[in-house]
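Researcher: Hi, I'm a grad student and pretty new to this. My advisor asked me to get structures for two proteins we've been looking at. I'm not sure of the right format, so I'll just paste the first sequence and hope you can take it from there.
Model: That works fine. Here's the first sequence with its structure tokens right after it:
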Amino acid sequence: MSGAPDSWRRCARASVLSTGGLLSHQAAAANHGLDGFPEGAIEVVIPKDRRIKSNNATVHRSTQLGKADPTEVNGIPTTGLERTVLDVAGVVSYRRLEWLIDAVLRDGQTDWPSLFDVWLRHSIQGRNGCGPVRRLLDERYGDTAIPDSKWNRMVGRLLADAGVGTPAYEHTIRDSEGRFLARVDLAYARQRVAIELDSVKWHLNRESFESDPRRKNKLALAGWIVLTFTWADYADRPGDLLRVVRSALGICGV
């Protein structure tokens, strides 16, 4: 607007609105207030098939804009924090990436499971930044426990993003007479496919060792297919996990 004071945020918002994209990369990091990223050059991301030029901003094109988790920060549509970290990882040094991740973890802006989740969702198709983030995850993630509820969401999101469909979470299964049989981590109830996520911390104890097989036997007798996956299946072999679920659901093209 004429007479309005010039500012970085005003210019950033104008660039985003004029391109129909999102503030991204180091400009998004600055807008999120991430340590070590001052307001500077403006960068926006738009869909890959859109052809737009901007005199005021660097324009990036992405085939994965649907996974950018857009959020509004300071009135500016911006890539989500974890996606911003992934984008920044593709354009800064590894040491600077380490400093950035140290900062967002220290400040409580994100956590290891969320960073792993954004890496995994983008790495299936490949993306700049995935390599450095995976290296850092391998070096730093260690044996940090994944809370069951959060892991359920991460696997469900992986399935949904791959086009398999969004499963029901913490699904209760009953027999034909309404009696309780089990509660499973994830389920496709119409197809009677249940997914159990086994972790060393939460499942490999004496009680679970005895009760889990009995529980799965009951589900099998009730006509359910029970698939069991570990953290390694999700983290190291997501493609295999998806293929198994697709096969169980009878999806073509497996």
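Researcher: Oh nice, that was easy. Here's the second one.
Model: And its structure:
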Amino acid sequence: MALQLGQTAPDFEAETTEGRIRFHDWIGDSWAVLFSHPKDFTPVCTTELGYMAGIKPEFDKRGVKIVGLSVDPVDKHAKWAEDIADTQGHEPNYPIIGDADFRVSKLYGMLGADTSGEASDRTAADNQTVRNVFVIGPDKKIKLILVYPMTTGRNFDEVLRVIDSLQLTANHKVATPAQWQPGDDVIIAGSVSDDEAKETYPEGWESPRPYIRIVPQPR
């Protein structure tokens, strides 16, 4: 069964390029991004892993840990990292899970439960559904799921934007509108009554319709 928003992210133990981890313990009190790849030495994924390494300081500033996953063994990841550094200018500076037994991919619904055999016998096309981004909160709940085709590189700047929204709305009773960027106006959450809103926003709000209450972003 596919994972859904609000569910607890499945816990697991796995070998990574930075040693063995238990996922929930590794997350700790942080936020986390798990992003997956169908196979090592694939061109689009090479660009993605390099880009993530370059913008890792942006995730660090937000208290977000990054972990990759690819359906190949960890020792192959290490060789791939050399190519990533040579071609993208940044070597992965975060752990990459080795999922040669498909265990994590199955656990997260990216491969069918009946997937079997040797990872080395499978092509990237066989694993094309392993192209997900999961954003997980400190409560270990899944906050965002994105699934990309193999031919479209992921937009990790958008992942950062969503994390900014998730962290803002986790701390304030607001929602962010379409195309929102940090610093833009926000919308008072529908769960907040007008009387409650007046306590937080005594100067009022812009309301083109009764159900739309626009206020400056809380600081």
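Researcher: Is there anything I should tell my advisor about the second?
Model: You could mention this: The chain has two domains: 13-152, 172-215.
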